[in-house]
Amino acid sequence: MKNTASQFRSCPSRAQRAALAVAAAAALLATGCESMSERQRGTAQGAGVGAVAGAVIGNASGNNAGRGAVIGGAIGAVAGNLWSKRMEDKRQAMAKATEGTGIAVDRTADNKLKVNVPSDVSFDTGRADIKPQMRPVLDELGRNLDPNVGITIVGHTDSTGSDAINEPLSRERASAVRDYLSARGVAAGRVVVQGRGAREPVASNTSDSGRAQNRRVEIFLSEAAS
Description:
Structural class: alpha+beta
Distance between the termini: 53 Å
Radius of gyration: 24 Å
Helix content: 40-55%
Largest sheet: 5 strands, mixed
Number of domains: 2
Number of helices: 8
Strand order of the largest sheet: 1-2-5-3-4
CATH architecture of the largest domain: 2-Layer Sandwich
Number of strands: 5
Low-confidence stretches: 77-81
């Protein structure tokens, strides 16, 4: 009888079996359907990982493992759905267009595409006029941009001058980028403009090279989960 009781205790509960079923279904979706897009596969994979994590946490905390799997799967699905093939294609296109220019194109930890444009390509000291070198970069940025993608443009200055000058100047720089994109078909309403003045340096302002790095524009593309 003792062995039998032990066997029953070692069997997975109904809730645990539900959690495993959710995870297995998500895994099958992620790997078994060739017709799925990268975004859909990411959703399924995220759901699978989230379901397993939710089940484990729910079971360990004495809560319902099955419910934890469902909640974890939903959260994982959202997390897995934030970087699509379109975003990756845009990242690769931007990386190619900016090769050798000093412009950095990166995927951020929160699944945004970040384009960092330093002063060598963007703006001279005290100016908000877009340099000619920057125009092909912005042309590529706005080309075939999916309507689901939001744009945030953040302007920065070096520490030359006072905050009374730098704050509006940084915003003017971001606005100049927005206006350039708008003139080429990107709806101004989908663009958020911010100015940070000299508050967020990425290098020391004690040297010409450091100030040049700080005098920049950062452009973020983000795709809403769907």
